[in-house]
Design brief:
The structure is a single chain. By secondary structure, this protein is an alpha/beta fold. The chain has one domain: Protein of unknown function UPF0759 (TIM Barrel, Alpha-Beta Barrel). The chain contains eleven helices and nine strands. A six-stranded parallel β-sheet has the order 3-2-1-9-8-7. It has a three-stranded parallel β-sheet with strand order 4-5-6, covered by helices on one side. Strand 1, helix 2 and strand 2 form a beta-alpha-beta unit. Helix 10 runs parallel beside helix 11. InterPro entries: DUF72, UPF0759_sf. This is DUF72 domain-containing protein. It holds the Pfam family DUF72.
Length: 297
């Protein structure tokens, strides 16, 4: 992921901003005593990108990946709508409990910019729902220059989306968060429809770290900088998630990107170890198979 890439990550202040005041209100309103669901993964399973992750001779990359991690941020679906039989093959390859978190196709988000979404969504959903019980939260990512002037398109999209299918939306234009009249209207819309407000932690766009939850599901896209500070940044997220879990967080979706993706499994493994050790989760530690290489941290 090149979004937010910088040449000098050591010069960036990666401190997580304070929570938006209403985040605690949202989480407290849904609090209970159950441990949250935790999904951690990468954005791709391609062997070329995740160099040295796969044992020598691995042919079924998704089959192997899905037995190391319990989820994948499915970026491939952004670039094109795959045939139905491809979704069926993906679903058949993964174990029970594994979740795909597919990105909505760019035809809807970037090319049409949500125009006629109510006409385009049925075909997208007809394919995506073939993932069946392995479908996690779908997410919509809008272009950097998609601004609040197109508010009506967002409303139409949200109203056209079936409520029974979990959804998260990522906005990248700063005006969605920096203008109170706009942001409050947006947050209320997302809350009303139980849609998660995607959080993106990337070096060059600290201006969109809004820290505003709109549901009890935290959908976090972490972009490492291929720099030693990546591990400290992950530890800071563990601390913040501790706070949110105390307040009532019910699901954590944490997906790791890198400008050089081969390090993504290493960061994801570090994060899983921290979450398991600190909170008693029991996610598999990638690489702990007899036939798998050990991921050295």
């Amino acid at each position: 992921m090149k979004f937010g890439k910088v040449d000098n990550p050591e010069a960036i202040d990666f401190t997580l901003p304070p929570d938006h005041p209403d985040t605690q209100v949202i989480l407290n309103s849904k609090a209970n005593n159950q441990k949250p669901q935790l999904y951690v993964g990468c954005a791709k399973w391609n062997k070329q990108d995740l160099k040295n992750f796969y044992p020598r001779g691995t042919k079924d990359e998704l089959g192997y990946y899905s037995r190391q991690f319990n989820s994948i941020e499915l970026n491939a679906t952004f670039y094109r709508l795959f045939p139905k039989d491809q979704f069926e093959k993906w679903q058949e390859k993964v174990p029970d409990g594994f979740k795909f978190f597919p990105k909505i196709t760019q035809t809807i988000s970037h090319l049409k910019r949500l125009i006629d979404a109510e006409k385009l969504l049925p075909e997208y959903l007809d394919h995506t729902l073939l993932l069946k019980e392995n479908l996690g939260t779908v997410f919509l990512q809008m272009h950097n220059n998609f601004a609040p002037k197109d508010w009506d398109r967002v409303v139409n999209f949200v109203n056209a989306w079936p409520r029974e299918v979990p959804l998260a939306i990522e906005f990248r234009h700063t005006d969605w968060f920096n203008t109170p009249e706009v942001s409050n209207k947006l947050y209320y819309l997302l809350e009303e429809h139980n849609i998660s407000n995607v959080l993106v932690d990337t070096a060059g766009r600290r201006d969109i770290m809004h820290m505003r939850m709109t549901s009890e599901e935290a959908f976090i896209r972490f972009v490492g900088a291929n720099h030693p500070s990546d591990y400290d940044r992950l530890d800071a997220w563990v601390d913040r998630l501790d706070t949110w879990m105390e307040q009532g967080l019910r699901q954590i979706d944490f997906f790791i990107h890198q400008n050089v993706e081969k390090e993504s499994p290493l960061l994801a493994t570090h994060f899983i170890k921290q979450m398991n050790s600190r909170f008693g989760f029991d996610l598999k530690i990638p690489g702990k198979d007899n036939d798998a290489p050990t991921l050295d941290l």
